[in-house]
Amino acid sequence: GAGTIEFIVDGSGELSVDGFWLMEMNTRLQVEHPVTEAITGTDLVEWQLRVAAGEALPKTQDELKINGHAFEARVYAEDASNNFLPVTGKLHHIEFGNARIDTAVQSGSEISPHYDPMIAKLTTHGKNRRETLSKLNKALTNTHVAGTITNVSFLISLCNHKDFGNGIVDTGLIERDMETLIAKEEMPEVVFALAALEALKLDLKEPLSGWRLWGEASHKITLVIDDEKTTKTIILNGNQNLSVYEESETLRLEEIERSNNQITATLIEQSESTSIESKQISADVVSYQGADFTNSISVLYEGVTWVLDHPDPLSQAGSEEGAADTLKSPMTGVISQIKVAAGDAVKEGDRLGVIEAMKMEHSLIAPRDCVIAEWLCIEGSSVESGAVLVRFE
For the stretch 116-134, what's the b/e string if a residue is b when 16 or more beta carbons lie within 10 angstroms of its beta carbon? Predict the structure, then answer.
């Protein structure tokens, strides 16, 4: 068989013999076994099978040598900004960067509430920590998962963390710097242009694309980013060029080329100093229909994945009416407890119930002082993420 022994180490000062404590032994390979395989050049899964078949171990301890450094990152369907709660969803598109990939999913697979939400493990190997971490960072920035929330951005932030890069790591690092690790940057303007290009299904290579007898070919488009609607005008300039306008031109894309999901172009925009700047850009762009039949566009640009929704104007009316008077499920799971009943008055922050999923409990909290009008579920109900659970008077 094979076993993995875990220790906890006192890192408050210099390491000492009496500063190591045994935590547990798992009589199996750990999730992290590719790290050991990378630095020793072994296949531990093969070894397990050979030993189970009655063969001797292929090597002795003295024959094993450590070569270089290895990192493994676990890509999970979880929301780091929401206390790492697991999420579910269909993986409409999945593509990994250059690394060893251990996974059991592919585009079209479902992340269900019944199993661990791990999507894949990315493992890199190099001469030292810095080189290997750089390889991992690059692999993560080229990883694109569309259809569910993942922890990829969090993992990239961790790769770029100064102390982590220098190996100054302890069990409190993430909690201390959580605000920095989950900080979300402002969406670049060009992401809107790329999403609009996908939403409008524009084929700029078509000779007559954008042709008009009078004036320029313009398309007004509304996209939703983080529940906020943004409307801009896309103007086709011909020769595989387009411009984005609000009140005036905000940017221009020239020499747009597309190969499958990959879009490349020259980005031209005016900086705050009024100087014109241009650079070559590349992005991975896919569209899909979400679980609530929303038309969504996922854009991987400079290592960050942005999801923009393209609402159908015929189905928007009234869809948000009363949204403030309801509480929605934060994840897919089972309602294990209901603490209050219809007619009860509750205060902001009161615990209304509990939802369970993937070995985790999450409290359902009152968003404001209110009176419970009705529950739209019962204890034991299975509910989807985003489903309305409670209506308030």
Answer: ebbbbbbbbbbeebeebbe
User: Residue 60 class from Cβ within 10 Å (0-12 exposed, 13-18 middle, 19+ buried)?
Assistant: exposed
SS3 label, residue 180: helix
Q: Do the beta carbons of residue 110 and residue 90 sit within 8 Å?
A: yes
Amino acid at 33: H
Out of 28, 212, 351, 368, which one is annotated catalytic? Answer: 28
Q: Is 28 a catalytic residue?
A: yes
- Residues 6+ positions from 342 with CB-CB distance below 8 Å: 372, 373, 374, 375
Instruction: Provide DSSP, 100-162.
Output: EEEES--TT-EE-TTS--EEEEEEEEESSHHHHHHHHHHHHHT-EEESS--SHHHHHHHHT-H
Contact 269, 252 (CB under 8 A): yes
Angle at 123 between CA 89 and CA 298, to 5 degrees: 35
pLDDT by residue for the chain (393 residues), tens only, comes to: 678 888 999 988 888 889 999 999 988 888 899 999 999 999 999 998 998 899 998 999 999 999 999 999 999 999 999 889 888 888 999 999 999 999 999 999 998 878 889 999 999 999 999 999 999 999 999 999 999 999 999 999 999 999 999 999 888 999 999 999 999 889 999 999 999 999 988 777 776 666 677 777 888 999 999 888 999 999 887 778 889 988 788 899 999 998 889 999 999 987 665 667 889 999 999 999 875 567 899 999 999 999 999 987 665 544 444 446 889 888 788 999 999 999 999 999 899 999 987 667 888 999 889 999 999 999 998 888 778 999 999
At 134, give phi and psi (nearest 5°). Answer: -65, -40
As a 3-state breakdown, the chain gives helix, strand, coil percent values, each rounded to 5, of 20, 40, 40
What is the number of other CB atoms lying within 10 angstroms of the CB of residue 334? 15
Dihedral of CA 349/354/357/359: which sign?
positive
* Per-residue burial over 212-231, b = 16 or more CB atoms within 10 Å of its CB, e = otherwise: eeeeebeeebebbeeeeeee
Whole-prediction pTM value?
0.81
Chain mean position to CA 353 = 27
